[in-house]
Amino acid sequence: MTAQLQSQTHAALPHVLVVDDDPTIRQLVSDYLGKNELRVTAVADGRAMQEVLADQVVDLVVLDLKLRGEDGMALARRLRDDSEIPIVMLTGRAEEADRVMGLELGADDYLTKPFSTRELLARIRTILRRRHAEVRQGKPEGIRAYRFDGWELNLNMRRLTARDGRHVPLSNGEFSLLVVLLGAPNRILSRDQLLDLSRLHNDEVFNRSVDVQIMRLRRKIEPDPAEPRYIRTERGAGYTFGVPVDTVY
How far is CA 204 from CA 173, 209, 245, in A? Predict the structure, then answer.
């Protein structure tokens, strides 16, 4: 497998953020999950956690309840207030009250140290399968990102990441139009619909502006803009996004 293909495959894996101030646990969990088709970022504190969440799309957080100088419960509460990212809590305390408090704060699952990495993996997979099923049912709000064919559009950061990890700059119009297309894959959208849904009419008067934006997007994302694979023209009808799209909440 080439280095580029390996990078693309790695980027498409579910991304797990591990927050634990014990370097041994960070290394153990990272190594095990990384060998089992998960992409892992491991950090030691809440500040680093927030930096990763602001910069990348994370599918699940494994959070130590007792961090040095920080309250894992407070971090979990803040995370749940800001997003619906699944949380698996880790703790060295076995009291039922702590487990209940963690779950009431919005944690999706709970493991007590010492724990089995195999059990952690099983619980993570279960949560990700459940979340994927919820996404397929079409939850309407709280979308954080779209993924397609190794690409990722982070809505919070307004950032498009290519299959090889490059950040591809988008104008406001290009970003708005791509959001609309990714939100309705394999559905034909007319120029008028694209204008209305992306609000391009605030910047451009005529619906031919959609064609210009489409041309610019194709130059940035299509392997061959002359033979587009992603944004397809439906003659006389409009455009459609022609590859599967995963939604991240």
Answer: 9, 6, 28
Give the bridge partners for 147, in sequence order. 152, 246
Residue 116: count of CB within 10 angstroms of its CB? 10
| Number of other residues whose CB lies within 10 A of the CB of residue 103 | 14
Q: What are phi and psi of 194, to 5 degrees?
A: -65, -40
Domains of the chain: 3-136 (3.40.50.2300), 145-248 (1.10.10.10)
* Measured CA distances, 42 to 16, 23, 50, 57 (Å): 8, 9, 12, 14
Tens of pLDDT along 106-129? 788 888 888 999 999 999 999 888
Assigned token pair, 189: 């959208």
Q: What CA–CA distances, in Å, run from 189 to 6, 43, 62, 139, 185?
A: 34, 42, 40, 21, 10
pTM of the predicted model as reported, rounded to 2 decimal places: 0.59
CA distance 84 to 6: 29
Which among 222, 248, 215 is positioned nearest to 83, based on CA atoms?
A: 248
